[in-house]
Design a protein that fits this description.
Helix Hairpins, 9 helices, 54% helix, alpha+beta, Beta-Lactamase, four-stranded antiparallel beta sheet, elongated, Heat Shock Protein 90, five-stranded mixed beta sheet
Length: 457
């Protein structure tokens, strides 16, 4: 069932229920008022009958009938009955006998007055004291005007309920349609969006209701998807280009070498060129595999405690082994008195890969000049900073430096594929850290890695 239909049914049902309760309440209180008003009228007739009866000690049927016709307005099917306490009639203008339940007699004797119903008729009885003794007067009649009024009211309420429910249902359908109209527009626009049209966005309206908020959130997701798709396309294009270059060079060299017989010296030179391109291809493949590993999810990452002071010395040793004569200097600064502040939970293998890439870039782009690796640790977390005095990064290109395969305009003369920083950023983020880069052209670059401690509790 569609939400629009649900809203229509809910709105109609709730409103119909309220109208029904209101109608029943109106009819109930009208019924009570009508009954009470008629009982009050019967009580007045009892008092008049009593006054007439008390004027004389004896009133025969003819005199009483004349008085009633002159002074009393006749009610439909009205009758007045006067009884002694032993339930015997005191007026004999009509043939009547006590024919009421014992409860009526008990209520009249106990409370002195009691209204009650006899079939479709209303009646009231009252106890009086006369010089001849005590007696009971009962007047009963049929409230024809009241019943007619209640019948009309009942018909009006039933017809009003039916027409009101129908009107509310139509109104609810219209309001539900208007309420869901933005959702319909969103659904239609979403159906138009595909991988080839990620530039489309949903209408956000005035931005002050839940649907606008939903559209805004969805548009934000589309922005991220579009960015991811663009990065993916750029990655594939660049990766294909980087892989094709060494393969083209290898195939070209092989074809030239096999074209005719050559001296041994030329074969050796060709093999050296092929070996160089193969090493480049191997390096690129290794970098791509490392980049794919950096995309593993945090929940699948194996972590263990790492002593960061020992970790930086290991990095120094690895750099000296990888780049003999590297000028990486360790600056430990003021170490915290609590050695536990130097411990961080992470994946040591991946973090070494990330930091080595950052250090290699620092050495490469500074001409293997002095590179400082600073370590700081306190209650807030652990900070590692790599500072060089190399070529720096153009300010306009700083935002794109972490994209895979992106290389700055002033870095084309240096070997590389533009993968190292992107991979390092992913690994550090995967281990719960953050990476910031600040640079000035021809003045050097500072890469700050920060691992914040989780909040207590």
């Amino acid at each position: 069932m569609k939400i629009r239909t649900k809203l229509t049914l809910i709105f109609t049902g709730v409103t119909a229920f309220l109208i029904l309760v209101l109608s029943l309440a109106i009819y109930y209180f009208s019924l009570r008022y009508t009954r009470q008003a008629f009982y009050d009228l019967l009580k007045e007739r009892i008092d008049i009958t009593a006054q007439v009866y008390l004027k004389k000690d004896e009133v025969d049927a003819r005199i009483y009938q004349d008085i009633r016709e002159k002074f009393l307005r006749s009610l439909p099917e009205e009758s007045e009955e006067v009884y002694s306490l032993d339930k015997k009639p005191r007026l004999v203008h009509d043939a009547y006998t006590w024919n009421y339940p014992g409860e009526v007699y008990e209520q009249i004797m106990t409370h002195g007055y009691h209204p009650f119903s006899v079939g479709k008729m209303q009646a009231a009885g009252k106890r009086f004291l006369d010089n001849q003794g005590e007696f009971i007067i009962i007047v009963r009649a049929y409230d024809q005007p009241g019943e007619r009024m209640l019948g009309n009211l009942r018909n009006i309420l039933v017809v009003g309920f039916l027409f009101s429910t129908l009107f509310v249902h139509v109104l609810a359908r219209f309001l539900a349609y208007q309420a869901m109209k933005p959702m319909t527009a969103i659904v239609r626009r979403v159906q138009e969006i595909s991988a080839a049209s990620l530039d489309l966005r949903l209408p956000e309206g005035d931005g002050r209701d839940e649907i606008s908020e939903l559209s805004h959130t969805f548009n934000g997701m589309l922005d991220r998807l579009e960015s991811a798709f663009e990065m993916q396309k750029t990655f594939i294009t660049n990766a294909s280009h980087e892989l094709r270059n060494p393969l083209t060079a290898i195939l070209g060299e092989v074809e030239i070498t096999l074209n005719k017989s050559r001296p041994v010296r030329e074969y050796v030179q060709s093999l050296q060129k092929i070996s160089t391109e193969a090493e480049r291809l191997q390096s690129l493949t290794t970098s791509l595999l490392s980049l794919s590993k950096s995309g593993v999810k945090s929940k699948d990452l194996h972590v263990a405690p790492i002593r960061m002071d020992e970790f930086v010395w290991e990095l120094k040793a690895l750099m000296d082994e990888k780049i003999p004569g590297s000028c990486v200097e360790i600056e430990l600064g003021d170490m915290p008195p609590d050695a536990d502040l130097l411990v961080w939970e992470g994946n040591a293998v991946l973090l070494k890969t990330a930091l080595l890439n950052i250090l290699e870039n620092a050495c490469k782009f500074s001409g293997n000049a002095r590179v400082r690796l600073q370590l700081r640790a306190d209650e807030a977390g652990v900070r590692l900073t790599v500072i060089d005095r190399g070529v720096g990064i153009p300010e306009a290109e700083t935002e794109r430096i972490l994209e895979p395969f992106y290389r700055c305009s002033n870095a084309r003369a240096y070997k590389g594929f533009g993968i190292g920083l992107a991979m390092a950023h992913r690994i550090i983020k995967l281990n719960g850290g953050g990476l910031e880069i600040s640079s000035r052209l021809n003045r050097g670059t500072s890469v700050r890695v920060f691992f914040p401690r989780p909040a207590a509790g």
